Amino acid sequence: MNINNNIHTDHNNYDIFKWIIATTCLLIAIISNFYFKKYNIFLQIIITTLLILSSILIGLRTKSGKLLLLFAREAYIELKKVIWPTYYETLQMTLIIIAVAIIIALILWGLDTILVRVVSFIINMRF
Q1: Residues 59 and 101 occupy one common structural domain
Q2: CB pairs under 8 A, 24+ apart, for 1-4?
Q3: Given this model, what pLDDT does residue 87 score?
Q4: Is 18 in the same domain as 70?
Q5: pLDDT at residue 120, rounded to an integer
């Protein structure tokens, strides 16, 4: 029992070390972006991109990163299972939404006109 607990702690410490390295790479990328401003832009882009990519790759090697990859794979599989509407269905639904929006706008415009006339009638009344 004690050996299993020790292995789990070592694995957790290793993940923490990976996160520290990934964060350090990201911070170095940000700092180097400011430092290399006086140098060639191509060099600046290459260094920043490499540091950010290495930070992402190190982060994906942790337990949380592996869970993120597993979630992304499962989401992609579910995305493939979705039955997407055809072009005609999409066009038809869009036209219905536009028609309903126009009808509601006309109703609101009519109510606004009636309310403006009622309020102006009340204001112009003389007692």
Answers
A1: no
A2: none
A3: 96
A4: yes
A5: 94
What whole-number distance in Å separates Cα of residue 47 and Cα of residue 44? 5
In the chain (127 residues long), the average pLDDT of successive 10-residue segments reads 53 84 90 80 87 92 91 95 94 98 98 96 85
* Whether 31 and 64 share a structural domain: yes
Q: Say yes or no: 110 and 123 in one domain.
A: yes
Do 75 and 87 share a structural domain?
no
Same structural domain, 17 and 73: yes
Q: Which pTM does this prediction carry?
A: 0.54
Q: How many domains does the chain have?
A: 2
Distances in Å between the Cα of 102 and the Cα atoms of 7, 46, 99, 122 are: 65, 52, 5, 30
Per-residue model confidence (pLDDT) at position 3: 52
Tokens representing residue 81 in the block: 């299972």
CA–CA gap between residue 61 and residue 55 (Å, rounded)? 10
State both tokens at 28: 């170095």
Q: What is the pLDDT of residue 40?
A: 81
How far apart are the C-alpha atoms of 63 and 68, rounded to whole Å?
9
Residue 96 is part of which domain span?
A: 83-127
